[in-house]
Amino acid sequence: MKFLAIGNANIDITVFVDKIPDQDEASEALAAIIRAGGSASNFAMASARLGIDTSIISSIGDDPLGRIYLGTLEREGVDINQVKIVEGRRSGLVVILNVLGESRRMIENLGANEELLPEDVMRRKDLLEAADVVHIASVKIPIAEAVIKAKSEEVSWDPGSRILTNNKEDVLRLLNGVNRIFLNLKEAEILSGKGDLEKAAQKIAQKGPKEVFIKMGAKGSLAWIDGSICFVKAIPVNVVDTTGAGDVFAAAYLAARAKGFSPGKSIRLANAAAALAISRPGTSYGLPVWDEIVAMEFISYGKDTNCQNLN
């Protein structure tokens, strides 16, 4: 089984603080972590950790940040041979502020991610064709178009809020070539124009995807799969860092399906993976292995395999 991820390559600097300092004020961080990140990169590391043969197409600069990125992904078992290294550009950088008791804040600079082009994808058409699943995340519309053109099936897409906000009609136009789409609550509402989640999932599915996933955070996950709604409650945990949780969810779901599990069981396993990830600081440091996910899923959900009613 081979997965291919396409999208951003970043270095994330995550800082944990008890409050944001005022102007001309300094405060001491409770903790700080520097790690590889980016939605597609998180997905690639998570799926490799789960035993899936995983490659990535991304773009970095020829700088120390890029070397940290390559080293991290290689240690996680991701094939980095298709990573584009751009001379004279700095690698993507994201500063993540985790304030105690509040939602995270993110400040991004795309850097060399802007150098990832549709032709970089098309030159690797053989790699796309050989992959059992191609997962694209937070990529620009021309790259999404190139992937969908080159890969006739098993395309998984996590567009991200920025792309959806600025390119809603383009995303809707391309959904006919996508097998699965992963969204959060806000993204599902933007794309569908519906506040009701079941209606939102159904409307998005009418555009083409066989499976539509809406990640609901602490409430759980809702999916529209082959004409039916499946809702699975979240696993309550002590939340430390939510960065990359959606990418871990997608990787675990797709890995579970690749291992032969049913959609409902796969969603529960994905919820378990996300719960483990958010209970640990730093995505690449906190990625769960398969046995942890299986144990967490069984302890939390038991033997029940039925989807639940959203209400």
How far apart lie the N and C ends? 37 Å
Order of helices and strands: EEEHEEHEEEHHEHEHHEHHEEEHHH
The CATH superfamily turns out to be: Ribokinase
Give the number of domains.
1
| Number of strand elements | 14
- Count of helical stretches: 12
Strand order of the largest sheet: 4-1-9-10-11-12-13-14
What share of residues is helical? 25-40%
Stretches where pLDDT is under 50 for at least 5 consecutive residues are none
Shape: globular
> Average pLDDT, to the nearest integer?
92
Give your account of this protein's structure:
With 311 residues, the protein is α/β, with parallel strands linked by helices. The chain has one domain (2-20, 29-301): Ribokinase (UDP-N-acetylmuramoyl-L-alanine:D-glutamate ligase), CATH 3.40.1190.20. Helices cover 37% and strands 24% of the residues. The protein has an eight-stranded mixed beta sheet, with helices on both faces. Strands 3-2-7-8 form a four-stranded mixed beta sheet. Strands 5-6 form a two-stranded parallel sheet. Helix 10 runs antiparallel to helix 11. The relative contact order is 0.14.
Give a quick rundown of the structure.
With 311 residues, the protein is of the alpha/beta class.
SSE layout and pairing:
Blueprint: E1 2-7, E2 10-17, E3 31-37, H1 39-49, E4 53-57, E5 59-61, H2 64-75, E6 84-86, E7 92-99, E8 105-109, H3 118-122, H4 125-130, E9 133-137, H5 141-150, E10 155-158, H6 161-166, H7 168-174, E11 180-184, H8 185-192, H9 197-205, E12 211-215, E13 220-225, E14 228-233, H10 245-258, H11 263-278, H12 290-301
Parallel strand pairs: 1-4, 1-9, 2-7, 5-6, 9-10, 10-11, 11-12
Antiparallel strand pairs: 2-3, 7-8, 12-13, 13-14
